[in-house]
Amino acid sequence: MRVRVFQHVPFEGLGALEPAFRKRRCEIAATRFFANEPLPAPAEVDVLVALGGPMSVNDEAALPWLAPEKEFIRRHVAAGKPFLGICLGAQLLASALGARVFSNREKEIGWFPVEGLPVRDPAAFRFPATAEVFHWHGETFDLPSGAVHLARSQACENQAFQIGRAIGLQFHLETTPESAGALVANARAEMIPGPFVQTATDMLAAPPARYAALHRLLDDLLAHLLAKPALRLP
Questions:
Q1: How far apart are CA 206 and CA 116, in angstroms?
Q2: CATH no. for residue 120?
Q3: Would you call 103 helix, strand, or coil by DSSP?
Q4: pLDDT averaged over the chain?
Q5: Is residue 234 part of a domain?
Q6: Does residue 152 lie within any of the structural domains?
Q7: Is residue 133 part of a domain?
Q8: pLDDT over 70 (residue 228)
Q9: CA angle 209, 108, 62 (to 5 degrees)
Q10: Cα-Cα-Cα-Cα dihedral sign, residues 148, 132, 107, 156
Q11: Is 97's pLDDT higher than 60?
């Protein structure tokens, strides 16, 4: 299985996703938009992952690669292929499918719980009733038409959704101690004090058990995403 990673900045990488894909014997290749690398041929991509980044999906005038990236995502999802969008990647998915992306009422940075929502469709992923996950975002999105709402948090209503074989996560299940440290080092200016913004000290003091639980949830989600049957597109 060929996994293509859309990477937007050097300091937001695959994290725990890399070993999760490697154990499934996936081939991993990346398109690094920050290095002006071209999009792949659609036929070369079985699974698409869009990672995070500090930019907005609405910055098409300043970042001309955003529009073709969104069109690639839209076509990939329409073809029924698995897609995982993380933070900016989830916002790209929402925008590619016609939904609005806008500033959230609060920044959400650090470790905060999300609430899994009950879903009726047996093909939809089910989050646990509550899970402590890692966040780093200031924007949010409306749900695209036909999407299944999977999770919310106190600070952000739309934390996760699924449409077809595509899942968008506003939060980061792939976070490792190293990737959390890289975000703190490179995006510290975003850590404006607020009710849902942790200090760097608290954020980086998360115990190993918290990361282990995060990565078990990531593995469950990947197992679901790469399996069939899938939700039908609306």
A1: 22
A2: 3.40.50.880
A3: strand
A4: 96
A5: no
A6: yes
A7: yes
A8: no
A9: 120
A10: positive
A11: yes
DSSP string, 17-49: HHHHHHTTT-EEEEEEGGGTPPPPPGGG-SEEE
The answer to whether the predicted template modeling score (pTM) of the entire model surpasses 0.90 is yes
CA distance 159 to 61: 27
Q: Give the percent of the chain with pLDDT over 90.
A: 95
Instruction: Give a yes or no: residue 44 inside a domain.
Output: yes
The pLDDT-based confidence of 122 (bands split at 50, 70, 90) is confident
3-state percent helix, strand, coil for the chain, nearest multiple of 5: 30, 25, 45
Inter-residue contact 232 to 164 (CB < 8 Å) = yes
Helix (H) or strand (E) holding 129: none
Supply the angle between the helices 88-96 and 66-78 in degrees, to the nearest 10.
70
* Gap between the Cα atoms of 114 and 132, Å rounded: 6
CA 221 vs CA 126, 159, 162, 232: distances in Å: 9, 14, 11, 18
Secondary structure (3-state) at 150: strand
Tally of domains within the chain: 1
**Burial of 84: CB neighbours in 10 Å, binned 0-12, 13-18, 19+:** buried
- Which range marks the domain in which residue 99 is found? 2-225
14-58 residue pLDDT tens = 999 999 999 999 999 999 999 999 999 999 999 999 999 999 999
- Specify whether the CB–CB gap between 30 and 3 falls below 8 A: no
Element (H, E) at 88: helix 88-96
The closest alpha carbon to 102, from 72, 66, 139, belongs to 139
Token pair of 229 as six digits:
């049957």
